[in-house]
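S.,

As promised, the pyridoxal-5'-phosphate run. Input:
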Amino acid sequence: MSTFKIATGLHMNNKHTEQQKELLNFDRENIWHPYTSMSSPLPSYLVKSAQGVSITLATGEEIIDGMSSWWSVIHGYNHPVLNKALIEQSKDFSHVMFGGLTHEPAITLSQKLIKMTPKTLERVFICDSGSVAVEVAIKMAIQYWVSKDKKCKHKMLTVRNGYHGDTFAAMSVCDPVNGMHQIFEQVLFKNHFAPAPQVKFHQDWYADDQGEKEITALEAMFNEHHHELAAFIIEPIVQGTGGIRIYHPEYLKACHRLCKQYDVLFIADEIATGFGRTGKMFACEWANISPDIMCVGKALTGGYLSLAATLCSTDIANTISNGEAGCFMHGPTFMGNALACAVANASLDLLATNQWQQNVLTIEKYLQEHLSPLINHSRVQDVRILGAIGAVETKQPVNMAKIQKRFVELGVWIRPFGKLIYIMPPFITTRKQLKSLIVAIAAVLNEDECFML
Ligand SMILES: *Cc1c(COP(=O)(O)O)cnc(C)c1O
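Predicted complex:
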């Protein structure tokens, strides 16, 4: 057993066993990791178990998770209620095809989603991952206009700095510079990109007519292209992977208004922001808007299994269904997977009964008090906070290999990219655990080697 203690910040000299070394060697040589080179990969850490807010590595070190495994583990790891839901469902059945068959876990989940999401959303497509949910949303929008005999309306309008997933239609609405547009240029759909929203969440929208100017620029795009626009897609309030940019609700309101005005469908990609992360159940609530189509994913199952959903209005569902094809043209093999739906139901029940909003608020307050002051550090460009999200933008990019190693040595799991050191911890994270995360961030900011490329 390890006697490693996080609080001391000491790095125990725990070594991998021969068997663990073999596993890691195989991993390094044969297995792709997200956005990682196979010829010169950064090291991956072998995980033994995870509990609450802690991940235990094979070497025995316990590290505090600041990432919620990419926005998803909102209730913490190894949660008894979620475990139970998974086990109980597996005793009945784990999966049946969704073509011609249906089941209570999927029906209950759809009822819950319809009830908790904005009022226009009444029809549910349950799919396997966030990217697929975005593909489904874009296909719905295009098929909607085809069914209305307006085939010319088949393009997307979005804003720069967005991220919507890694599949082709999703890629085609990711930021054209930071995204993957150069490599796949030949085959990507050509969509329209408005400037990224600039007025920040906590800024005064009316100061210097900044807000007004932004909307004028956006409206010009709608005005010029609406004849060919099927939909406008945006991450409400927080642009996540595209830079943790937190923008003003008035901007989101204006997007929604312009969509109505120019007869363009509004798609809200709530995959990162949904289920409480920003302090509201859905980030759309900050602007009091009700989208035509909405994608959810990531935290839907509390981080247990891959599951996502695309919700749409009755009008969209009926128009598609009454069109020439007579149905919506999509249907993945694992659609409505019962295990995933059962865990999602348990996770949503937890949200309905626990103190998530209070917890997120407490995290936000703590970040505001203790992460915000890092703005005074010479290496820091900006600090951004909303709900259970905190981001430190540095002036220079981080050295991934060095900084990752240091974070693990400091007893935390934080995975920066580019100039962003950011955390979105599980909602159950205590002040003491938050302190460890922030102390670690403050420490690496003082270490030159973490910023030398
Ligand atoms: C993560 C993410 C996606 C893609 O979800 P995957 O499950 O990784 O396919 C899409 N949109 C947003 C906003 C995301 O954060």
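The pocket of pyridoxal-5'-phosphate is lined by residues 129-131, 134, 163-165, 235, 240-241, 269, 271-272, 297-298 (CB under 6 Å). The chain has three domains: 1-29, 32-65+356-451, 81-353.

- D.
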